[in-house]
Design brief:
Rossmann fold, 2 domains, six-stranded mixed β-sheet, globular, ATP-binding
């Protein structure tokens, strides 16, 4: 289990996370949602061990974690199979073994034998992100950290990959901590939705649910969440006054004063 107890993280410019209490259990898909800049990715970095809390306790009982980023971050000179097998190579697995594992996952993800030999430049954005997910899953992690991995994809492809991730997680029993700013995506994916406030970020709501697949159910569940005042306050962007940009006319600058 991954657990945050009273975790606080501060940098020189202020407090980012404050009094975070959160648990991610084995086999559970937890979605973090909040406004851009609230500290969701920072919380993932804490879970990954690349940041340390300023206060509180963080315990990670998972033995093998991997991460999927917003961008695929593939090696441009390597083909899809070698990119998916990158973690296995780093671990020291034999070439034939790691290629077989990568090919098996990519085949489940819809890759043909021809696709396996393509370099990233020859793959669509959706295929590149499939390779990135395959790379994370190839090492058989017990925890996967996912940082808005579908934010750059169109709606149809995003939904396809959401279903793929949900299926693979259930198949392997992997725990997932998933970051998004899309409430519909959270409802589609999560066993539990955790809503974070703007900075300094705190947990303002936790909702356990059964992941939804029907579009009507998804939007009804998202609307029900937004009717909760604490969720609406955390997620709704603040209104800012619109100020018209006034550019002095060059003619006004040279116009003669009255009486000249």
């Amino acid at each position: 289990m991954l657990s945050f107890n009273g975790v606080r993280l501060a940098f020189a410019d202020g407090v980012v996370l404050d009094q975070i209490d959160l648990e991610v259990r084995a086999g559970e898909l937890v979605v973090l949602i909040g406004r851009s800049g609230c500290g969701k990715t920072t919380l993932l970095r804490l879970a990954a061990g690349t940041e340390q809390p300023s206060a509180g306790t963080l315990r990670n009982g998972f033995a093998n974690a991997s991460m999927v980023f917003q961008e695929p971050r593939l090696l441009p000179w390597a083909d899809a199979r070698d990119n998916a097998a990158f973690g296995l190579k780093a671990r020291g697995d034999a070439r034939a073994e790691r290629h077989a594992t990568a090919a098996d996952i990519l085949t489940r993800f819809g890759f043909s034998e021809c696709d396996l030999g393509k370099r990233p430049a020859a793959l669509s954005g959706g295929m590149q992100q499939r390779v990135a997910i395959a790379r994370a899953l190839a090492v058989a992690p017990d925890l996967v950290l996912m940082d808005e991995p579908f934010s750059a994809l169109d709606v149809g492809l995003r939904q396809e990959l959401q279903a793929l991730v949900r299926r693979e997680v259930e198949r392997a029993g992997t725990a997932v901590l998933f970051v998004t700013h899309d409430l519909a995506e959270a409802v589609r994916l999560a066993d539990r939705i955790v809503v974070l406030s703007p900075r300094p970020s705190r947990v303002v709501a936790e909702v356990s649910q059964a992941p939804a697949s029907d579009p009507g159910d998804i939007y009804e569940a998202a609307a029900a969440l937004m009717r909760r005042p604490e969720v609406a306050a955390a997620l709704a962007a603040p209104l800012r006054p619109i100020r018209a940009a006034v550019t002095p006319s060059p003619m006004a600058e040279v116009a003669p004063a009255a009486g000249e």
